[in-house]
Amino acid sequence: MKFRRILAALLLAAGAAAHATDITVASTTSTEQSGLFGQLLPAFTQATGIGVKVVAVGTGQAIDIARRGDADVLFVHDRAAELKFVAEGGTPRRYPVMYNDFVLVGPRSDPAGVKGQDITAALGKLAAANAPFISRGDRSGTNAAELRYWKAANLADHKGSGYRECGCGMGPALNIASAGNAYVLTDRGTWLSFRNRGDLAILVEGDKRLFNQYGVMVVNPQKFPQVKAAEAQKFVDWVTSPAGQQAIASYKVGGEQLFFPNAGTDN
């Protein structure tokens, strides 16, 4: 009996030690809704013994969380906003980690005739047709990219009467578009994981402007002493290491790779 109590105590202590420290990662919804974190984070925890709590919101909101010092790691996809965060002293360094691309999806019949590779030409046709378009409208990385494309098409203030902002994540935006046979810009990773497609299909892809880079960074412990800097750096080091990069590359849905590792680049 005594031996069993000792063994139980040892097992309990081992379990506690395995997750003695948890870090908080503020991230974009696409890393979670695509299912990537479901594969990536357990592998990290197994390798390091560090647990991970995720706050999955739009990139703009995730950066706001990091600006308040309420996260240890920031993992997002809006390079301009990330570089601004670096310039503000929010992090000592930004690390490129992976990429995929954005795609424009819409009704398979494509009543606005947008199908092709040119995203700005497609938006011009949507505006001219007053076609139903669902914008996330939530300051996410996807929303920021979408607004850049409207601006590049000289249509920032003339998006057509079918334009609607949902103020929601990528999954809900896709659900709304599916229910209403509307057009919507999405990251490919979330699209490949999305099951409620209805009559939606990819209509615009392949434009180099649709490139979608992700960055990861430790929130600055000099500004926020509560940040678990050592553990956060272990996360960044692991996710940009060969092991972490392989874990990203090996994540597939229906045989299709969702994200492509590119740590060490200047993206």
UniProtKB/TrEMBL annotation:
CDD domains: Periplasmic_Binding_Protein_Type_2
Record keyword Secreted present: no
Any matching Pfam family: PBP_like_2
Signal peptide: 1-20
Annotated keywords: Signal
Superkingdom, taxonomy of origin: Bacteria
Annotated PBP domain residues: 16-242
The keyword Cytoplasm is assigned to this record: no
Protein name listed in UniProt: Substrate-binding domain-containing protein
